[in-house]
Amino acid sequence: MAEEVILETTGRDPKPWFRCPFGSGYDEPRILDALSHRGYVNIHWNVEPLDWEPDRVDVEERAVHGALQVGDGSIVLLHTWPLPMRRALPGLVGRLRDEGAQLVTIDRLPAFVRPASVPPERAQPVVPDP
Q1: What is the spatial distance between Cα 44 and Cα 118, in angstroms, rounded to a whole number?
Q2: Can you give the pTM of this predicted structure?
């Protein structure tokens, strides 16, 4: 199971965060319910700079522009394996900060702050569609 591999490899439990592969099913109640029952909260992005496409040279610009367009609560989907993304990341982070963006972990985004009245296993984020 992926959860075990992640824990073994990184030493960190991935719970409660989950990203549907390719985004498939991110808004399907059946999938969200199954994730919730297993202790996960689905995280979906609202900015996709397509950093996985070969020879993509405008990754930084697309990510920065998209994040600034969406504004507060932006979740930018970035991958760690494309070389252009790895090269663009320092500039991307710098430009976002220069524009006033505050980069935070998922659990600090307002959409993922769980009201005390909602048990963790039933909490679902509200993330706008891309």
Answers
A1: 20
A2: 0.71
- Cα-Cα end-to-end distance for the chain: 29
Q: Whose CA is closest to 78, among 57, 97, 51?
A: 51
CB burial of 3-34 (b: ≥16 within 10 Å; e: otherwise) equals eeeeeeeeeeeeebebebeeeebbeeeeebee
The structural domains of the chain, with segments of one domain joined by +, span: 2-122
pLDDT of the chain, 130 residues: tens digit per residue: 788 988 999 898 888 889 999 999 999 999 999 999 988 889 888 888 888 887 777 877 888 888 888 778 888 888 888 887 888 888 888 988 998 888 888 878 877 654 443 344 444 444 434 4
122 DSSP 8-state letter: G
Nearest residue to 103 (alpha-carbon basis) of 116, 115, 90, 120: 90
Statement: 2-122 belongs to CATH 3.20.20.370: yes
CA distances for 36 relative to 17, 18, 44, 59, 77, angstroms: 10, 10, 15, 33, 22
